[in-house]
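--- STAGE predict ---
source: upstream dedup step, 1 unique chain passed
mode: sequence only
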Amino acid sequence: MKHIIHKMYNPTNSNLGLLVLRLTLGSVFLVHGIQKLSNMEMTIGFFGTLGFSAFMTWVVALIEAVGGAAVIFGIGTKMWSSLFAIIMLVVITTVKNGKGFSAMELDIVLLGLALGVGLIGCGKWAVCHLGHKGTCSMNGDHCGCDCVKNDKK
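--- STAGE serialize ---
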């Protein structure tokens, strides 16, 4: 048992951990984006009651759907995660403000996940990484890709 626990928390599994985080974040936003896009009339109506325009509703829905898919594959991870974090900050400070912690705890988790993935980047197991062989830092555990390009080739 001790050996299994050691293997789980061995730093060589950081790529797997980042993949799990990316898949989780991307999947949640992809599903929510698809749900919004599948009934835009209702979504625009709901956003309108919150004071948001139809244009902003489309922007959020597209960021969630397209960005969710991109994060799953590890393409533009920092950019999309940053946009997710902005969306979650708006949700927490406007939509959920004053409704108590339990009403916004999932939003806080998604904000933290978006910030964490955004800070780390796409990782080694990402489509983006495939096009940048030789540009990895941190002993190959972290791909430079959309995150930080390393000029060493």
